[in-house]
Amino acid sequence: MNRDSLLERRLRRWTWIFLFGLVLSGVTAIPIQTQFDLAARWFGADFSAGGLLPEFVSTWLAKAYAGVTKTTAQAPFVWYGTDWLAFGHIAIGLAFIGALRDPVRNRWLYDFGLLACAAVIPWALVFGAVRDIPFWWRLVDCSFGVFGAIPLWCCRRWAMELEQTNATKSS
């Protein structure tokens, strides 16, 4: 297998990895109550997991669970926002089909994705503070931008390499 074919396969594989993570992180926003109910069964209603979780984590999870349960009971329409969050993740994922089809011509999608990943960090830090989200949880949210950027950065680099190879061949 020649170097170009190898690069194209690697590009497509890593684009699929990014796409899968993007869509998965979006659709998991839909069943929030179900996820908390499951976690409460696994870790206990106080989320202490028999002392396995640090107290600051179990305290935050118990507080979040109480908020989610109360919101579900009194204002379930609020979750419509997370439904749209999931839709946004899927819509962005659909755009990356262009990168799967022609990663060199659509290299700008990797740039777009990297910019969006970079924007996750200030977004989580600022709005997390506004919404009184614990700092450590904001760092968890920031990690989505960091981990999302890894496959995108690699794909961008490989697409540029392919572009240079194709330019050299045509000269």
Structure notes:
It is a single chain. The protein has 171 residues and is mainly alpha-helical. 80% of the residues lie in helices and 0% in strands. It has seven helices and no strands. It has helices spanning 3-27, 32-43, 55-74, 80-95, 97-101, 108-130, 135-170.
Notable characteristics:
171 residues, mainly alpha
Radius of gyration: 20 Å
**What is the distance, rounded to the nearest whole angstrom, between the alpha carbons of the first and last residues?**
23 Å
Name the helix and strand elements from N-terminus to C-terminus, one letter apiece.
HHHHHHH
Mean pLDDT: 95
Domain unit count: 1
Q: Catalogue the unreliable spans.
A: none
Q: For the report, how would you describe the main beta sheet?
A: none
Can you count the helices?
A: 7
- Proportion of helical residues: over 70%
Helix vs. strand class: mainly alpha
In total, the number of strands is 0
How much strand? under 5%
CA-based shape? elongated
Q: What's this, in brief?
A:
The chain is mostly helical and 171 residues long. It is 80% helix and 0% strand.
SSE layout and pairing:
Elements: H1 3-27, H2 32-43, H3 55-74, H4 80-95, H5 97-101, H6 108-130, H7 135-170
Helix pairs in contact: 1-4, 1-7, 2-3, 6-7
